[in-house]
Specification:
This protein is an alpha/beta fold. It is built from 10 helices and 9 strands. The strands form 2 sheets. Strands 1-4-3-2-5-6 form a 6-stranded parallel β-sheet, with helices on both faces. A 3-stranded antiparallel β-sheet has the order 7-8-9. Helix 7 packs across helix 8 (150-162) and helix 9 runs antiparallel to helix 10. The radius of gyration is 19 Å and the shape is globular. It binds adenosine monophosphate. Adenosine monophosphate (AMP) binds next to helix 2 and strand 5.
Length: 284
């Protein structure tokens, strides 16, 4: 497994590999878990060569403290990537990606207004900017993103479409703990009792989805009430948002009609967790 820290070295290596090799790319912020590995395994299956980037992107954190306290363990990450048989890792510094006087950013407009975008100003601008830069450096045939970060996935798909990038975006299902909690680098911050409370997020999304499917005439407000009621929260926790949106446009639905996406952000103590559930026409 080759590891590169600079853009020229990365480009030179990829050029040496030859133009006819298809590159699969998995951008990450490190602190790798089974969710990340599922993306990597999929890429390994579908491409000649798999490239992973690890970069904690300062531009997408709207709180400096959150950026500074983001868990980093490059040694453990590299060992996991080696085991997976990844071909190349790109590990740039902040200065490598954002040299002084960096002035250009990418803004995907409509899709970033609701859900997480409403609570994290500038977040998706940071995500789109870094992902476009990484795409330009790696020039993959395919790039792999988790449905766990559903709005992020849609923003990247839109950017690729709007800017005519010759890259296929592959959406990968959310990997979960046995109790349903979506794997996330943030889960390590949870105490045992917080973890238990957090697991009620997905369980409740599922029961709200079942209710919505069996009561198609129900109003979104009653689904919201059901969600709040179903969660097992304590006084330190709070729901940031619960929305029912169209899965392509992410606009809020007033009436339930398939397909729809239930999306939520919940603070469990000091940890912000997001999750979602997509209900298609023939979902059971
Ligand atoms: P991150 O390191 O959090 O930026 O995530 C890197 C990629 O892994 C993103 O495409 C995420 O959507 C994806 N990812 C994170 N958690 C999961 C999960 N539990 N299941 C599937 N993909 C995930």
């Amino acid at each position: 497994m080759r590891i590169f820290y600079s853009i020229p070295e990365t480009r030179a290596f990829l050029k040496r590999m030859g133009r006819n090799k298809q590159i699969g790319f998995v951008p990450t912020m490190g602190d790798l878990h089974a969710g990340h590995l599922s993306l990597i395994r999929r890429s390994k299956k579908e491409n000649d060569c798999t490239v992973v980037s690890i970069f904690v992107n300062p531009l997408q954190f709207n709180q400096k403290k959150d950026y500074q306290s983001y868990h980093r363990d490059t040694r453990a990450d590299l060992s996991a990537l080696r085991k997976e048989g990844v071909d190349m890792v790109f590990l740039p510094s902040d200065q490598e990606l954002y040299p002084d006087r960096f002035q250009t950013t990418v803004n995907v407009e409509g899709l970033t207004q609701g859900l997480c975008g409403a609570f994290r100003p500038g977040h998706f601008r940071g995500v789109a900017t870094v992902v476009l830069k990484l795409f330009q450096i790696v020039q993959p045939a395919r790039a792999y993103f988790g449905q766990k970060d559903y709005q992020q996935l849609k923003v990247i798909e839109k950017m690729v479409h709007d800017l005519n990038l010759p890259i296929e975006i592959v959406a990968c299902p959310t990997v979960r703990e046995k109790d349903g909690l979506a794997l996330s680098s943030r889960n390590r911050r949870l105490s045992i009792s917080e973890h238990k409370r957090a697991s009620s997020i997905y369980a409740t999304l599922r029961s709200v989805a079942l209710f919505a499917q069996s009561h198609p005439a129900s109003a979104v407000t009653s689904l919201r009430q059901l969600f709040y009621k179903g969660l097992d929260l304590s006084e330190e926790d709070r729901v940031e948002y619960f929305e029912v949106v169209h899965p392509d446009t992410l606009t809020t639905l007033k009436k339930i009609q398939t397909p729809f996406l239930l999306a939520a952000a919940v603070w469990i103590g000091k940890t912000r967790l997001i999750d979602n559930l997509l209900v298609n026409r023939n979902s059971k």
